[in-house]
Amino acid sequence: MTQTSKIRTPIVCVLGHVDHGKTSLLDKIRGSSVVDTEAGAITQHIGATVVPIDAITQMGGALSKLTVSIPGLLFIDTPGHHAFTTLRARGGSLADLAVVVVDVNEGFKPQTIEALQILRNYKTPFVIAANKVDRIHGWRVQENAPFATTFAKQNERVQGIVETKLYELVGKLSDLGFNSERYDRVRDFARNIAIVPTSAITGEGIPDVLMMLIGLAQRYMTENLAMSVEGPGAGTVLEVKEERGLGTTLDVILYDGTLSVGDEIVVAGHTQTITTKVRSLLKPRPMSEILIEEKFERVKSVTAASGIKVAAPKLEGVIAGTPLRVIRGENRDAVVEQVMNEIQDIQVTLAEE
Ligand code: GDP
């Protein structure tokens, strides 16, 4: 992957009602890449999956002729509201973008509505995957095809059902105060939410979901994403885990800057900050090396966005969902104070819940 641009990878969360297909969608996105290694391998991170831009454009979804500067997309492997709201960053959510999955045959359910409200509160751009289109009676499957290709192959009756179901979703969204349209009819993405018909099982429409996310990042977020790969690292702790031979480790999503072995970092305990030094940075071994005894591969340095395991002394007592910051040169007091403020914020939020 070419890394000439200084734009970091946007972070994506998948939300929606239980059983509407969040896990299947993530599995499909991960799987599609394993097959297509030539297009730039999809890489497994700690708690996340990165899909490079080359892999996305080769899938041939809408907009694939767009010139893009976004290096790819990082999907958080854990779907749902919980991951979205507890993983905080910069006072908001860790996620830059979201996908709301809704079963097109069932329509909106309580958790769909909750997801939309959360995204509105956080002002997070999102697309809607109108999922399980393959369940429409008479649907003819075109494995992994972009929506336009597969839609053209369906008979009039099936096409009519798709349109009706989508209009029901558009109506519901309008009741909730959102303007929306089928994604290929959206003219202004700042005003209209794009709805992409998908099947998480057959892969239909998935290329379009990925391209829509790239489009949203490209148009509305490049300023936020620009240049943030070079500064001192900032991340959020996904999990605190004991690992044999490593002691207490942190699974971290790095959303900003660079994190290296030897860096001094500040993390959050229950009541105070903890300052320590990174001993090792670990990522999952690629599938091809699965026979090697060690579960992890050691790396010297990572840039945003990445999912990485951090080993360091004094990590017992760190809480999941709290920040990790790199101290570099002058910024020590400011960084410690920032982490302290975030601990206080989190305690206030917990007290309110
Ligand atoms: P989650 O609870 O939102 O993560 O939903 P899952 O991904 O676990 O999916 C729930 C069930 O719906 C599983 O049995 C999936 O195989 C099935 N499913 C998910 N997406 C699709 C789809 O697009 N088409 C079909 N036919 N089944 C799906």
UniProtKB/TrEMBL annotation:
Keywords: GTP-binding, Initiation factor, Nucleotide-binding, Protein biosynthesis. Signal peptide: none annotated. Transmembrane segments: none annotated. GTP binds at residues 16-23, 77-81, 131-134. GO terms for molecular function: GTP binding; GTPase activity; translation initiation factor activity. GO terms for cellular component: cytoplasm. Residues 7-221 form the Tr-type G domain. The keyword Aminoacyl-tRNA synthetase does not apply. Function in general translation initiation by promoting the binding of the formylmethionine-tRNA to ribosomes. Seems to function along with eIF-2. Belongs to the TRAFAC class translation factor GTPase superfamily. Classic translation factor GTPase family. IF-2 subfamily. This is Probable translation initiation factor IF-2. The chain holds residues 1 to 353 of 593 of the full protein.
